[in-house]
Amino acid sequence: MDWLFYENEALNDGYDLICGVDEAGRGPLAGPVFAAAVILPKGHIIEGVNDSKKLSEKKRDVLFDKIIDECACYSIGTASEKEIDEINILQATFLAMKRAVDGLKIKPQIALVDGNRKPNIENVEIKTVVKGDAKSASIAAASIIAKVSRDRYMLEMAEKYPEYYFEKHKGYGTKLHYEMIEKYGICDIHRKSFLKKVLNT
Q1: In whole angstroms, what is the distance from residue 47 CA to residue 98 CA?
Q2: What is the predicted pLDDT for the residue at 54?
Q3: What pTM value is reported for the model?
């Protein structure tokens, strides 16, 4: 598989500065949605990088440092659980992606975005790539940065709210998580729009 197919396609179209963009945490019941934007040096593949979902937590942690060392630049953007409740998860994901791209020290000309929906980012061409985290070196790198960053944030939240065991499920809707919500109610970082059925019972 050509990990640089989409990057090379963008280069051939005249784009020099290409970033990959992906998100982590669209599905959980708690915590922000994270997005990352990564610009790799031209023609560069970071060994071992793959779709973050296919890697173990340990492997992702190692690659996180490797990506930061080897990339031209990276940025992380988030949208809070309150923003998710206010504007919905899709728009909040786009907001986190926009914040990630806007935060890059090098301004990209084009963003390769995982999925089939385009966030609106001023002065940046957007190309969506379905299952991009398994097809593009830049998007795969962004998927790892976003996932590890969010997981680490949720470990911090586990110390703040130990009764919910966020360290085990990172906010996703597991049996344990639902049991703890039933026992303790919701906390400040829960997404109320994701828990309407629970809150209305």
Answers
A1: 27
A2: 85
A3: 0.95
